[in-house]
Design a protein that fits this description.
35% of the residues lie in helices and 20% in strands. By secondary structure, the chain is α/β, with parallel strands linked by helices. Strands 4-3-2-5-6-9-7 form a 7-stranded mixed beta sheet. Strands 1-8 form a two-stranded antiparallel sheet. Helix 8 crosses helix 10. The longest helix is centred in the last third of the chain and has 12 residues.
Length: 254
């Protein structure tokens, strides 16, 4: 029986064999590697992955799809909202220190998933995700560009990231109304030591009025904390590189 894509789950199923092969090549799965796939859907990516890995853990919210996946002998199926999955527990249950994570993420909740995984980054070896191309453009953006945003800063401080593959709408059934791409995310081996909650708050305040100079937003935030250090507030949020946001957070914490 054909599965009808459910709009509420943001389902768009990958159907282009050439694109699937290209994604698998970018992931480069090796036998025995502990890997988790988010949103396996109709198993277009799942099957070639598990053939190379031998075993694969999948996270699927749609109960009909989860039931189908359970009939596959080489899959560990977690039927859950990915935002409720503790990846440290998944790693522990598999008896491994780190996981490789992949997936065609639901575009309607892709950013919350990225931030959820950021909280679990200690057990992540690498991540390969298909996302809306516009989101990946923001993830990998350089300062002083229109794409540079809170998302850029909050991910770049912790990951090295590359846009590795363009995926057109016609590669899916049903086709989404946007272009897609695949991003590779590798956690930095020695990230800067920083209070992540404070960094998140600081960056959110900075980008809350991105068209205005930082003295209107971040300046007031720093003033409220009686920060007496030096920081150039005569810039817009998008002009400040990641390392300066990190340094400012560290200075505020000190």
């Amino acid at each position: 029986m054909k599965h009808i894509a459910r709009k509420r789950f943001g389902q768009h199923f990958l159907s282009d064999a050439g694109i699937i092969d290209a994604i698998v090549r970018e992931i480069a799965p090796q036998p025995g590697q502990p890997m988790v796939e988010i949103g396996p859907g109709l198993a277009a990516l799942t099957q070639p992955l598990v053939e190379r890995l031998g075993r694969l853990t999948v996270i699927e919210l749609d109960r009909d799809l989860a039931a189908r996946l359970r009939s596959h002998g080489q899959l560990n199926v977690i039927e859950s909202d990915v935002l409720k999955v503790d990846f440290a527990q998944v790693a522990a249950s598999l008896g491994v220190p780190k996981l490789r994570v992949v997936g065609n993420l639901p575009y309607n909740i892709s950013t919350p998933i990225l931030f959820h995984l950021l909280d679990c980054v200690g057990v992540i070896e690498d991540q390969h995700f298909m996302l809306q191309k516009e989101v990946i453009d923001r993830m990998v953006a350089s300062p002083a560009t229109s794409e540079y945003s809170r998302l850029s800063v909050m991910l770049q401080w912790r990951y090295a990231m590359d846009n590795v593959l363009f995926v057109p709408p016609e590669s899916f059934d049903p086709p989404p109304r946007v272009d897609s791409a695949v991003v590779r995310m590798v956690p930095l081996a020695q990230p800067p030591q920083v209070d992540t909650r404070l960094l998140s708050e600081l960056v959110q305040v900075a980008f809350s009025q991105r068209r205005k100079l930082l003295r209107h937003s971040l300046g007031k935030w720093l003033e409220a904390r009686q920060f007496g250090g030096a920081f150039d507030l005569q810039r817009r949020a998008e002009e400040v590189p990641v390392h300066e946001y990190i340094a400012l957070t560290q200075a505020v914490t000190a």
